[in-house]
Every structure is written in structure tokens, then in C-alpha cells.
Amino acid sequence: MKSENRFDAPPHPESVRTTTELDRPTAVHVLRRLCFGAAPQDVERFVGESVADAVEQLVEGARSTEPDPAITLLLPTGELGYVQSWWCEQMLGTPEGRCAERVALMWHGHFAASNDKVDDVHLMHGQYRLWRERGLGDFRQLLQAALRDPALLVWLDGVDNVKGRPNENLARELMELFALGIGNYTEADVLEAARGLSGWRVVKRAARFTPSRHDGGAKTVLGTTGELDTNGVVAAVLARPACPRWIADRLWRTFVGRAPTAGDLEATAKELIAANWDIGRTLVWLATRPAFLATDERGTRIAGPIELVVRATLETGARLAPKELAESATHMGQALLRPPSVKGWDGGRQWLDSTAWIARQRFAGRVAEVLGDGDDFDPFERLLPEDPRPSWRVAVERIAQDSESPRRTLVAAVLASAEYQLQ
Amino acid sequence: MTERIGSFGPARLSRRRFVVGGLAITALGALPTPGLAHTSSRRGERETILVVVQLTGGNDGLNTLVPVAQDAWYRARPSLSRVASGAHELGSGFALHPALGPLAPLFEGGELTCLHSVGHPDPDRSHFRSMEVWHTGSLERRSANERPTGWLARLGEQIIARDGSAPAMLHVGGGALPLSLVGAEGPAPSVADLEQLRPGGGATAAAVRAALYAEPGSEAGDARDVAYLRRTARAAVDLGRRLEDGARAPLAADWPRHELARDLALVARLVRSGLGARIYQVELGGFDTHRGQPTIHAELLRQLGGALAAFQAELSAAGRADDVLTLVFSEFGRRVRENASAGTDHGAAGPVFVLGPAARGGFVGTPPDLEHLVDGDLPHGIDFRSVYATLESRWLGLDPSSDLPGTAFLA
């Protein structure tokens, strides 16, 4: 199947695949991509359903889930570590809840703010709530809210953007990283947009608009002229055709695991508009495309540290404390709420530097170590359902036979394999 | 105080550093031609090493290298100037903070070089921005799409391209990898402790890894990343093994017990082990002393002085002191005037220290003049990029990242 040709098919195909009943490897694949992975009983729940029904249940069900309110007790400590652990715990919830968390993690990487600069776990958690509660909804509203998010205002110096002394940091990233991408705006647009975004402060952890600090004069942003404020600037950005394409690109990279072709990009952007910018509907559409489902599209994406530790925990049933998940992911190069830069995590091959690889191997050993005695399963069938007979299987089984605990040795080996790092 | 370094002018070559075919070039009459500077750092010969110590948070330079002879300093700092009483006189009107006692003998012996008022023409009071400037070695404001690369990582990539030796650079410490070590090819390895690079398990685990990451057969060389992942996994395991060997080298010096000392002790061990890395970075954080500075700053400087002195002693005992230069920097200095909370706020230029017998010793640059400030801050006298340029081209024998003139602080 040539990917370039996929959209030569009718634009809204009730494709054969969407009505196909899910077999186990396909269910595992869908659950890994949409909600980090699943315990065997969750997989069973979806086996036999049609692809369309399964995806619909996960994504639509995600909208009504809520994270654990216990976080409010942890925030006063000011400790980022608690928030990181708590978030990891949310990623181990129901399949629907996990789907909402997966989407929140995508937006966290997209609008990547770090506590290193924000330096306030309340604000970081507030921003997480935004991704979690509105991440599946209308992107236009999400973007408007993001530009008023206290953590983002601090992170990108929106609070220093004052009439007469514009700080263009937030305006630039709005165009470059959040909504359009480089080449789709000019320096003049950035400067004019900065004037429009001026006037925000963060007072008592809330964003407050102060008219005396706002530049209310006329400006022209991306061809729209007027006395634009935040509302107007964001509307001007959203009106550009590059915007839905930029968001479509993000969805492809996150859920399909590669950049879309020009045709795929166009089709996805069109779908986003048709869905009134609803991310959830667009995700349902995307997850029922051949590009998402086809067997040669599976296992092609290097899992990020958070995806990997959560998936391994879900799939093996290992009893690991959420704190251990967060810390392991940090060792592997993904500290939640502390992305390395405003651009987020590069992902892909960048995940695998030497220390990160060793951290993944150590984590594999740790998971095997805490496996309960009752958890007897075939690690190849369960953890590598697409290809339970990798080239190294015989050699590793031979070594495992002579080891203290053959089962733990095998589980550790599978989890540390190159194949398991992919999804 | 600065010089052109683009051409490796003969008169500026250091006596100590350039070794050609095992022969030290000591006489000015026997200077190598320009290209030869590069041969000095080839594998198998003596390799120059750069260790960068970052003081995170903005170190108060004026209470580190104290201008004890300037009235303006006492006037600006009625409470913080108490450090003058126990300070270690260096001459020329400057003294080291009382807690930096261990560094005084090094200054005396010419192994500590103090560079006055190092900064750049576009100071910014943001930690984030200032650190980015020092880490990238550039004042350019990049769009986030062209990902900035770290100056040390660029050097490391040059070394790997030339010598094929990895790891060329290493981050040591438990904190996040600094941007200085993030290159176009990805991040440098980062080691908090060697334990972290031990994949764990005994002989069984080692045998499993050997089987797991074996070169895939032709069939398995598929479109997926499997082959790439196996290759990098093998490299990681190999690095872990090499570092583990390095860790066994015993320590000779008397090391204090704190994190910076632990990190620098690991660097010393790895240098002694012959690991081959040419660039290391470690950090000491907590210098953002907006309030209650006297206690906090003294404690941090006590750690810094103790760790650096032990590090030099360790290298000397190993006979490697001549091969290593240590650069101590902070993202900015602090304001001249103390604030109302017995602290100091974000400022601009500050001193940089270079440790090692290969530096010339003493002071470099025009002493800060507290009567002439810019926005209440010390203006810079030496551009940090010219310090980098000297380290890059003259110390490491690599292409510098800027064409700025170097700074003459090497012996």
C-alpha cells in the first residue's frame, strides 16, 4: 500500500477496515496509539468490535472523564515531583481517561511550557487542566484560552508585553509554533500581533487584562486590520489556511507517527474545518484511516518515554508506583512539565541517546523485578503481538532457561528489545 | 587585552600545549605551521580537555572576586561588604570571598586566572535568555524552528567528525542536560552517577543484551527503526562499560562531601581513566541570591572552592593537570547595589575563572570600575565569546564558533 495514494480513495470512505472486527493485534495497536496501551482485560473489551465503534467509544468517552481531584492536596507543597507522579497515575486510568491524557500530553508538547521558568506548580497544573478539559474540543477555543493561560503568559513573557514596550515572544510563538509554522507570517505580523497581545498580567495566579497596559491602536495582523486585542489577533491567525494544516500536522505526528503527505495534510485540514475544529471528531476520523490502521503502519514510531513507561506498566500489570514511572521517564529524557525548550520534545530518534537507552534497559529490568508471581503470561504473545517471533527469540530463550527466573528474564528482554520501543 | 586568533599566529602558541610527534615545542624558533595546532589533540598524543563549571542562578561576582580597594563597593553594599574582613587578598585591589580560601594558594601558584567583567553587548536580566546566550555562544535570537545548538556540543561534533571518538563530550550531574551540550546530532551523554549507566543484571542480563542487540540479519533490516535502535543500544552498553572501568580508578585527593565535589571527582576519575572525552560540563545551582545572601553565598562558594581545589589536586596527583583547563562561569553577575532583603538582583557582567597551569595566572582584563555603571550594572570588559574563541581554537585546536578576537589568558 503506497501512502501517497491513500487519499485517492473517496474522501469519506466507509473503508473496509473501519467495519472490520478488531483482532487482538489490531486492538493492541489502536489502544497503544490512542491511550498509551492497555491491560489484557481492556484489550479483550475491544476485540470483536468494529474499528469505528472502538475508536468512537474511546474518543467520545474521553470527553466526560475527569482526573483525580486529589491533586489539590498536593499542589500546596510546591513540589513538581508530586504533580509529575500524579499525572502519571492519571495515565493508568480507564481507557477513555487515558485517551484524554494522551491528548493532554500532545498539547503539553505543542504549547511546551516548563516549570523551570514558570516556577509555580499551581500554574503548571492549571495549564494541564486546560489541555485535559478542552484538548478534545474546538481548537479555536483552545487557542484563545491558551493565550490567556497564566503559565503560558509567564513562560513566553506575555506579562512583560506592555504598550510602548512590546515583548514579541508570545506573538512569535503563537505564529511559529502554536498555529501557523514558519513561512506563513512576516516579522511585521509578529510585531503587530505583539501589540495586540499586550496588557496581560498574572495576579494571584490568574490572568488579568489591564487596559492601561494594552496597546489599543490600529494594527494589521496577517491581513486583518483593526484595533485588535488578543481575541482579534487569535481570530486573524485562525483565519489563515496554514492554521488547520499546522494542527493536522501535529495530529499526524502524534497519532500516526510521521509527517503527512501534502494530500493527507490537505484532507485532514479539510476534515478539521468540517468538524468545526473539533479535535475529537478529527481524531476519530484520523484513527479510522488506513494510514493509522494498516499493518505496515504499525510499530513504525519510536515511543516517547512517557508512552513507554505507561504502556509497559499497563501491558504487564507490573506494580510500579507512579513516582517511579515519572522518574524513569525523566531518566529517559522526558520530564513532565519540564520540556527542554519552547519547541517541546523533538521525539523520534532524538529520544535514544546513550543514557536514555540504558534507562530504558534498566526500566525493563525493574518491571520484570516487580512482576507478581501470579502474572504468568507469554511475554512474546502479549507484548509483541504483531511479531512474537523476533530474530533473537531463540537465543534469548536459551539464556533465560539457565537463569534464576526464566520468566522475569524473558519479560525484561522483551521490554528492552528494539521492537518494544516502537509502536 | 585581546588578540586575533583566527590565524593561529606563531607568537601566541603556548609553550605547554603543543606536542608534535611526542616533542614539546618549547622554543619560539621551532613553532609549528598553522595546521599543526590540530595535531596536538589527536588521539594517542596528549589530549587537551576542557571542563566547564556552571554557577546557575547568576553568581554575585562582586562578592566573589571582591574589589576591596573601591569605596563605591562598600557604599553600594552596606551589609554585604562584611565579607571584606575575612577575604583572601590577591593584590591589585582584589580579594577572594572568605569561603574561597582553598583557591588562594592556586592563585598564588599561578594556577587560577581571574578574568574581569566578562559579559556581552546585549545583557538581559532573564536567567533563561542569559543562559541561552552562554550555552549557544551566540547573541542571535533564533526562532524556535531553527533549534539552537550548544557551543560544547558543536565542539564535540567537530571532534567526533575528525577523530571518530565518542564520547567526545559528557555532562556530569543529576540536573537536566544543559543546552550547551545539545547538538544537531542530538544530546550529549549525561551521567549523574555511573550507577545510572549500568544496565544492571549480572552475566545473564549481559548475555541477553548481546543477543537482543545483535546486528540484524538482512531480513530484519526493514524500514522500521529496528536496526538503528539496536545499533544505538549496543553503543550505549559499550559506553556504560567504558565508564564503569573509569570509575574504578581510585581517588588520591582529599574530597569534600557534596554534590559538586562528587561530580568533579567523577570527571577526574574519567579523565584519569583515559576515556577520551575532551569536554565535560558540571553545574552548581542556587546562586539566585535575592534575599539572605550572606549565608547562602558563603556556603555555595565554600563548596565551589573546596571542589575545585580537590579537582586540581587530583589532576596533579595523576600527572594530568597540564592537560585540563576548567572554566567557571555564571549566566550573569548581580546588581552592584544590594537590595532591601540582604540580597542582590539580576545584573550583567561578572568575573570568569580559568583553572589550570595552562592558563597564565593572575588577572586578565580591565578591573571593574564601580563609579561607572550602566543601568546600575557593570558593563562588560571582555566578551565571553572571545573567551570561548580562545578555548575553542587555541586550547582544543578546533574551529571557533565566532570570529571574535580571542582573549589572552593562556600561558
From TrEMBL, chain A:
InterPro entries with a match to the protein in the record: DUF1800 (IPR014917)
Disordered as annotated region, ranges: 1-21
Domain of life: Bacteria
Name of this protein: DUF1800 domain-containing protein
UniProtKB/TrEMBL annotation, chain B:
Signal peptide segment: none
Domain of life of the source: Bacteria
Pfam family, one: DUF1501
Classification via PANTHER family: BLL7424 PROTEIN, DUF1501 DOMAIN-CONTAINING PROTEIN
The protein, known as: DUF1501 domain-containing protein
Taxonomic placement: Bacteria, Pseudomonadati, Planctomycetota, Planctomycetia, Planctomycetia incertae sedis
